[in-house]
């Protein structure tokens, strides 16, 4: 069993500490897809597709990113402790677990991982989760912030409490269910035109728009379909409760749920 | 005593006189002697004789013209083309009759054997087919249950969602799946899986323990999204027992304003259902 554990607590090289912590972790088996897990309390997480076989993690604590003022007494000196940065990256059987910031509370973290890496990303406060160009499964969860997934492929499960969920899917993994939910935000998802799915739509206080031809299932909730085209040339479906509809003949279930926001499902 | 015997013999005697019955010569003389002595039996004999004679006088019904035409047409169709080599019905009858044993004992034996074989085969086939179908159904249900349970334990939230979806499509949610779904509502790391599990469990709302479990789950939830979904579920069940859980939940100090407002509205709605 190969375990690589890299703890970076910069004790020397004070010049580096003032900037960011950066770690490159090689995967145990570069030929196999990896899983990346990151769970932090504060700060944004940005993940992009990088080189195969390695994961690069950069963490700049929120404190250092705001450029703490140096006390007058320290004028002309350089800092030799780790500041509020620091991170802990563990790799075991292609599963990379990242803890950043002091006590694992996190900071603004930037990660590059092989494109087919599956992601399990969680953060609570201050910022956003942004993922670009990844093609594994994505599980993104944030409390106070937005989720932005750009040009991703595969299957997405995303949830924000007080933020929007915006996703552009290039390709989808057939027969895998997806879920996009938020309490106080809007959902905007772009799917490939040939996506086959059964949509479960629910917005308590918002409206739902789509330019897909959604075949609504006959249900007790009886949604009202507005005649004609509304704004942005989109078809409008106004509903009270959750309702099911199929696109391109139906397929795995995709859940779209927002309590207080609009839902837009776009055709690419 | 003699009369009983004589009455039995009267019918036999009539059969005999009409040429189709059998009567021992001794019995015939004995019957005639008894009829001469016993007025009752003589009268019965006379009555029966009269009836038989009247029956014999009834005119035989003449076949209608239609019947004759149909009969001729049937004969024609069976006869086939003139000069054809088709075997006549008589020939068929002959060959089949040759195969059939003449002795009644054998005939009865064959009939009995057919009956026994039929009952045995039919019974076994029906029984085994029924039990096979039942076993197959149970096997499919067990497999589905196993698949749902194993998917719910998967690392990937998408796979766990698939497990929830799978269990929601089962015709009946088995108790083990219900337990797994309740566990998912309480413990799953993904809010989306929790939401899907609540939806799947709404199909099992008829079970009071499911409603109680989800009431208890409300107080444990930290995610406002899941809290909102559970409140929605409790209102839909219209279960008055949920009022206590909702009132207690509303007192929690860490609630988001929208959730507190929603819990208040739900309490009001449930009270109105009373």
- What kind of sheet is the major sheet of chain A? 12 strands, mixed
Number of strand segments of chain B: 0
Q: Determine and state the CATH class of the domain at 139-273 in chain B.
A: Mainly Alpha
Indicate the overall shape of chain B: elongated
Computed CA radius of gyration of chain A, to the nearest angstrom:
22 Å
CATH topology title of the domain at 139-273 in chain B: Leucine-rich Repeat Variant
Helix vs. strand class of chain B: mainly alpha
H/E topology pattern of chain A: EHEEEEHEEEEEEEEEEEEEEEEEEE
User: Could you give the order of strands across the largest sheet of chain A?
Assistant: 1-6-7-3-9-11-13-15-23-17-22-19
Percent of residues of chain B in helical segments? over 70%
| Oligomerization status of the protein chains | heterodimer
- Work out the radius of gyration of chain B: 43 Å
Number of domains of chain A: 2
Ranges of chain B with pLDDT <50 over ≥5 residues? Answer: none
Task: Name the helix and strand elements of chain B from N-terminus to C-terminus, one letter apiece.
Answer: HHHHHHHHHHHHH
Q: Mind telling me the CATH superfamily name of the domain at 139-273 in chain B?
A: Leucine-rich Repeat Variant
Strand-residue proportion of chain B? under 5%
Q: Please give the share of residues in helix of chain A.
A: under 10%
């Amino acid at each position: 069993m190969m375990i690589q554990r890299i703890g970076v607590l910069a004790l020397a090289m004070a010049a580096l500490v003032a900037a960011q912590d950066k770690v490159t972790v090689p995967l145990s088996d570069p030929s196999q897809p990896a899983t990346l897990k990151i769970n932090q309390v504060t700060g944004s997480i940005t993940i992009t597709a990088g080189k195969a076989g390695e994961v690069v993690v950069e963490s700049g604590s929120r404190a250092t990113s705001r450029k703490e003022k140096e006390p007058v007494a320290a004028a002309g000196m350089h800092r030799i402790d780790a500041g509020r940065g620091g991170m802990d990256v563990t790799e075991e059987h292609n599963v990379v677990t990242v803890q950043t910031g002091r006590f694992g509370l996190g900071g603004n973290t930037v990660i590059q991982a092989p494109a087919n890496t599956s992601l399990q990303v969680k953060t609570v406060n201050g910022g956003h989760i942004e993922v670009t160009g990844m093609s594994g499964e994505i599980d993104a969860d944030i409390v106070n912030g937005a989720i932005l997934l750009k040009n991703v492929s595969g299957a997405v499960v995303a949830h924000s409490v007080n933020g929007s969920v915006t996703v552009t899917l290039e390709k989808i993994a057939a027969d895998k269910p997806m879920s996009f939910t938020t309490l106080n935000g809007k959902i905007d998802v772009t799917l490939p035109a040939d996506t086959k799915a059964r949509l479960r739509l629910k917005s308590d206080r918002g409206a739902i728009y789509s330019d897909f031809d959604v075949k609504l299932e006959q249900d007790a909730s009886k949604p009202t379909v507005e005649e004609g085209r509304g704004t942005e040339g989109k078809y409008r479906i106004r509903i009270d409760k959750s309702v099911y509809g199929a696109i391109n003949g139906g397929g795995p279930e995709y859940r779209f749920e927002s309590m207080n926001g609009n839902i837009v499902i776009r055709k690419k | 005593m003699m009369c009983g015997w004589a009455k039995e013999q009267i019918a036999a005697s009539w059969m005999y006189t009409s040429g189709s019955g059998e009567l021992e010569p001794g019995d015939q003389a004995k019957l005639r002697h008894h009829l001469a002595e016993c007025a009752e039996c003589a009268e019965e004999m006379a009555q029966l004789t009269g009836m038989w004679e009247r029956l014999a006088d009834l005119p035989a019904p003449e076949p209608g013209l239609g019947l004759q035409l149909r009969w001729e047409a049937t004969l024609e169709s069976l006869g086939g083309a003139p000069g054809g080599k088709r075997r006549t019905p008589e020939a068929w009858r002959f060959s089949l009759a040759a195969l059939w044993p003449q002795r009644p004992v054998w005939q009865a034996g064959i009939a009995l054997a057919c009956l026994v074989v039929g009952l045995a085969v039919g019974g076994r086939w029906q029984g085994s087919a029924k039990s096979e179908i039942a076993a197959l159904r149970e096997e499919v249900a067990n497999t589905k249950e196993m698949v749902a349970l194993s998917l719910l334990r998967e690392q990937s939230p998408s796979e766990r969602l698939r497990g929830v979806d799978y269990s929601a499509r089962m015709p009946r949610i088995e108790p083990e799946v219900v337990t797994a779904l309740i566990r998912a509502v309480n413990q799953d790391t993904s809010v989306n899986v929790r939401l899907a599990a609540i939806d799947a469990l709404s199909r099992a709302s008829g079970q009071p323990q499911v409603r109680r479990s989800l009431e208890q789950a409300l107080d444990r939830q930290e995610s406002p999204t899941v809290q909102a979904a559970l409140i929605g579920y409790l209102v839909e069940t219209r279960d008055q027992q949920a009022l206590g859980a909702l009132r207690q939940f509303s007192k929690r100090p860490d609630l988001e304003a929208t959730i507190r407002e929603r819990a208040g509205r739900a309490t009001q709605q449930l009270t109105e259902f009373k």
